[in-house]
Amino acid sequence: MPILTDSPDPQLLNQLRAGDNQGFDKLYRQCYLSIEHFVVQNSGNQDEAKDLFQETLLVLLTNLQSPDFQVTSSLKTYVFAISKNLWLKQLKKSARWTSLDDADEVSCFVPPVELETPPSAYESVIAILKKLTIRCQTLLSAIFFTSKQITDIVKDDGYSNLHSAQNQKYKCLQQARKVSKK
User: Which residue ranges does the record assign to the RNA polymerase sigma-70 region domain (predicted)?
Assistant: First the structure.
């Protein structure tokens, strides 16, 4: 099975334009697994990945029919970019994805006392934070709750340099993701 290089495969593009099933099979073998992995890692499942791949093919075929269409990267990269954009758009629409701007608004919401409601996003975040190491609790609280700049954290919390503080932030976020999935 040939691997796509940085330039698009003209034979594959022609097969896709013509609606040749061999072209679609080749594209599927080269692209589908990475798209499925992306969807599953980002709040999706295999069925949603299959649907997304179908939508991606529709967008690709529509673009291929345009006479001035040119692919400047590998076709695999182009197809993955279409899928990624479609999936993120779908996540935003279905409210399974919250940007950091939206998270601030959610955490400020105070539900009425007389109503019994499920835990708010703020309570969920606090519950996850309590399960992290003290170092991660301190670092993430400083960044996300007090809006402390990472450069100030380097100075105040004894990190040797900016890179080590950023690396620790990444590790703490990974730890929080693992805890939240349990």
Answer: 27-96
Mean pLDDT, residues 84-99? 76
172 vs 95: CA distance, rounded Å: 24
The first and second tokens of residue 117, run together, are 């409601």
For the chain, domain boundaries: 10-94, 100-181
Which among 98, 126, 122, 125 is positioned nearest to 110, based on CA atoms?
Answer: 122
The pTM of the full predicted model, rounded to 2 decimals, is 0.49
Which of 2-6, 7-11, 113-117 has the weakest average pLDDT?
2-6
Query: Looking at the domain 100-181, which fold is it?
Result: Arc Repressor Mutant, subunit A (1.10.10)
Task: Enter the tokens of residue 62.
Answer: 């529509």
Q: Using the CB atoms, write b or e for 146-159: b if 16+ within 10 Å.
A: eeeeeeebbeeeeb
**What CA–CA distance (Å, rounded) separates 110 from 122?**
10
Alpha helices by DSSP H, the chain: 10-18, 21-41, 46-65, 75-94, 100-108, 121-130, 134-144, 150-157, 162-181
Unique residue bearing structure tokens 């004894």? 158
Fold of 10-94: Rna Polymerase Sigma Factor; Chain: A (1.10.1740)
